[in-house]
Backbone:
């Protein structure tokens, strides 16, 4: 295979990976907004209608429900982040191959860094805070 053809194919693979990355990121954004909106709407419509007494079995049930939601959200976010990291790693691999053929050095961004893990914590933290707030609203 000629170098030019190889580079064209690698560029196409790069584009495919970045398209997948963008679609994954859009799904992540939409699901997070939808989850947070549902929690906020539950608070709005449940305020005054749902009353959790301080010694109620429902507080335990609500706490369990909230923990399950946060854990599931955390697991989902970690999988999304792993998918995004994989897309970046493949894109970097393709770019590196292209640059080897044209003998250029390129500093590629890492596919794993602390700020990406921070986003998982921040996004899951928002869910947890909203659920705590919802619990407080229901106990008023």
Residues:
């Amino acid at each position: 295979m000629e170098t030019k053809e190889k580079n064209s194919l690698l560029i196409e693979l790069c584009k495919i990976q970045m398209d997948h990355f963008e679609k994954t990121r859009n799904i992540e954004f939409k699901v997070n907004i939808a989850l947070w909106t549902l929690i906020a709407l539950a608070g709005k419509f449940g305020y005054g209608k749902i009353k959790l007494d301080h010694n109620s079995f429902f507080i335990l049930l609500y706490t369990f429900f909230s923990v399950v939601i946060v854990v599931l959200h955390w697991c989902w976010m970690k999988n999304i982040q792993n998918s995004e990291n994989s897309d970046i790693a493949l894109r970097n691999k393709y770019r590196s191959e292209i640059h080897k053929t044209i003998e250029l050095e390129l500093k590629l961004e890492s596919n794993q860094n602390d700020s990406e893990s921070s986003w998982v914590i921040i996004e899951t933290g928002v869910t947890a805070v909203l659920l705590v707030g919802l619990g407080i609203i229901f106990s008023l």
User: Anything to note?
Assistant: DSSP finds three helices and no strands in the chain.
